[in-house]
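Q: what sequence does this backbone want?
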């Protein structure tokens, strides 16, 4: 097992990793920018190293700085969390070159899954169902038209190097296609420095379903159920739940087994999430995230597993300690991402938290690095914390969530808490009748007007 883990992240995930390491008896090193010197994980870690000014590129993305911090403190492993360098194959390789364990998959797997076109090719080869679309990047409009006619309109034009919804355009008819291609290419070039695009079928009312997997790199892999992440705004997840209200037990097991089997063939190591769009009983692969996800706690709540502890054990070379039949999923869990943003306009609201009271009680978990007097810096994402609830049934989880939201107080900054209070009282949410467009329609229709 590792002696000392350097946590190459900040905020709630840094604290989450620190807690897992502590429970394994492993010493921790917090790194931080000058903006984060008062952060909770910095206060609680065994050692801390300041690695640069507030801008992420000069601190949390500064590879030489992180390696120097490992060197100074004698850390023998790095946990990258999510975001920042978590899916950077080069960073994983550099760590390996310096004999520092990267707590995540092999660099080649990060690289394959980080390239959307290569990821789809690999997924197909591994037997994972994919969205019908172009085999690779599209270079000219005539080729795009041929592909579009083959898969049928509407189609989605996507940036090959993309993410976060940039470089994505819908073409509903042949007439829209060349404009969609031109706009997507321009956006992709500006955002990612690469104007390669590809086409795939546009699904009208899909749900976003993702499967959590764990592999040990030795050919063993299991799935730990699915999460429904369909409540999104601008392709950013807002609320997640497990199990999905849209799936039955057979569908759940079938897609889970397909994913676990693919990871066995790939000899994947660590935690990973395979993301799908789901419509009319069919799953379509969109991407794989080769890291821990923001929404991992809901899976922990129903499985009893600590996914970060599992990541650390796997990275230290331990084989999986269980088989698929040992994974026992119970009850229902829901997570709300509470951000320091205006609940209707989503305008960021950095600043000082004057009063902070997280909810508690049975089946309630709050993953947060916030505290009274903490200043949320304007330099990073605006997450205050994640509210996670579990119940024996979905209804019990919803009632528990309603109670917990009413107890949660954050004063001094705007937060998205009023949005969640409105959602949990909405009849369509209560019925589980939503898709990936639901939240944007709700907001456009003035669903939050009386909360402003």
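A:
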């Amino acid at each position: 097992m590792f002696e000392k883990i350097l946590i190459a992240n900040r905020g709630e995930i840094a604290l989450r990793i620190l807690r897992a390491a502590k429970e394994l008896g492993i010493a921790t090193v917090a790194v931080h920018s000058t903006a984060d010197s008062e952060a909770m994980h910095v206060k609680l870690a065994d050692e801390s190293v300041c690695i640069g000014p507030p801008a992420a590129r000069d601190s949390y993305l500064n590879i030489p700085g992180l390696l120097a911090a490992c060197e100074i403190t004698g850390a023998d492993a790095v946990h990258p969390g999510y975001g920042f360098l978590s899916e950077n194959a080069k960073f994983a390789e550099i760590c390996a070159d310096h004999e520092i364990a990267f707590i995540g998959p092999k660099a080649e797997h990060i690289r394959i899954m980080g390239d959307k076109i290569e990821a789809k090719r690999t997924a197909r080869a591994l037997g994972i169902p994919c969205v019908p679309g172009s085999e690779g990047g599209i270079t000219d409009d005539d080729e795009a038209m041929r592909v579009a006619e083959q898969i049928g309109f509407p189609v989605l034009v996507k940036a090959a190097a993309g993410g976060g919804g940039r470089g994505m355009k819908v073409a509903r008819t042949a007439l829209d296609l060349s404009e969609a291609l031109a706009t997507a290419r321009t956006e992709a070039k500006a955002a990612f420095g690469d104007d390669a695009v590809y086409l795939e079928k546009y699904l009208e009312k899909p749900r976003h379903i993702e499967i959590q997997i764990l592999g040990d790199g030795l050919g063993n892999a299991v799935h730990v159920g699915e999460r429904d992440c369909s409540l999104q705004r601008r392709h950013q997840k807002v609320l997640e739940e497990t199990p999905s209200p849209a799936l039955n037990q057979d569908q759940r097991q079938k897609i889970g087994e397909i994913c676990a089997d693919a990871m066995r063939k790939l000899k994947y190591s660590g935690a990973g999430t395979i993301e799908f769009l789901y419509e009319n009983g069919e799953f379509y692969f969109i991407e794989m995230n080769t890291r821990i996800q923001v929404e991992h706690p809901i899976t922990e709540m129903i499985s009893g597993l600590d996914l970060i502890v599992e990541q650390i054990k796997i990275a230290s070379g331990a084989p999986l300690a269980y088989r698929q039949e040992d994974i026992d999923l119970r009850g229902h869990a829901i997570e709300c991402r509470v951000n320091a943003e205006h609940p209707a306009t989503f305008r960021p609201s950095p600043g000082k938290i004057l009063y902070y009271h997280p909810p508690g009680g049975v089946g309630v978990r709050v993953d947060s690095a916030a505290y009274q007097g903490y200043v949320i810096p304007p330099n990073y994402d605006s997450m205050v914390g994640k509210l996670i609830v579990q119940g024996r049934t979905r209804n019990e989880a919803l009632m528990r969530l309603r109670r917990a939201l009413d107890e949660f107080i954050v004063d001094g900054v705007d937060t998205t808490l009023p949005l969640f209070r409105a959602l949990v009282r909405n009849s369509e949410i209560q019925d589980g009748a939503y898709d990936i467009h639901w939240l944007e329609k709700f907001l456009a229709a003035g669903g939050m007007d009386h909360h402003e």
